[in-house]
Every structure is written in structure tokens, then in C-alpha cells.
Design goal:
The structure is a single chain. The chain is an alpha+beta fold. It has one domain. 40% of the residues lie in helices and 11% in strands. The protein is built from five helices and three strands; from the N terminus they run αβααββαα. The chain has a three-stranded antiparallel β-sheet. A hairpin with a 2-residue loop joins β2 and β3.
């Protein structure tokens, strides 16, 4: 049975997730995330209400698997796999300055 602590540390298999949850699993800044959504390199957002935006959990899980190449959520055998997910090498600002800092 899943406890509340375990449930909050993984993404659901289906449904919608908010940005705060995504950023706990995908190491990127809030403004960099929105820039990626705008230029369509990250999954599209869905407006659920006037002040509520969310993303499909399936899209986020696929993104994590694509970028990290790791099983997600990690099984007991590969508990450290989620930690290997890396953010993009450079941000747009860093690219304009000539590379990563």
C-alpha cells in the first residue's frame, strides 16, 4: 500500500500535474520551463481554469524517460535512477553568453 509520503514523491501515471510538482522531478527553473513550453521543446500546458494550468502526467513521464533514459518511477533496484535526470546543458541566456557557466 502506498503511503502519503511515497505518493507525493512520484508522479501519477495519468491525470494532470501542476508546475510545482513537475519542478520537483525535473530540475529546471520556472522561467526556463515556461520558455521551453513557449518554444515547444517541453510539453504543452492545459488551462483547467482561469488561474489553473497543468500538464498531462503522461507527457511529463515521457519527458523524464526521454531526457534521463531511466525508469520512472524508479523501482527498488534503481532507486538512484531519478537522481540521474539532468537538466538541459545550457539555458538560452547561457547560450547567448557563449556556453554553460
Amino acid at each position: 500500500m502506498t503511503t502519503t509520503t511515497q505518493a507525493s514523491s512520484t508522479l501519477p501515471a495519468t491525470g494532470f500535474v501542476r508546475l510545482e510538482t513537475i519542478l520537483r522531478h525535473y530540475p529546471i527553473g520556472r522561467s526556463s520551463w515556461w520558455a521551453g513550453v513557449k518554444n515547444q521543446t517541453l510539453p504543452r500546458a492545459y488551462k483547467l481554469g482561469p488561474k489553473t494550468t497543468a500538464w498531462r502526467a503522461e507527457d511529463i513521464l515521457a519527458l523524464i524517460q526521454k531526457i534521463g533514459g531511466a525508469e520512472y518511477p524508479p523501482s527498488d533496484k534503481s532507486a538512484g535512477a531519478a537522481a540521474s535526470v539532468q537538466p538541459p546543458a545550457t539555458t538560452q541566456r547561457q547560450a547567448k553568453k557563449g556556453g554553460a557557466a
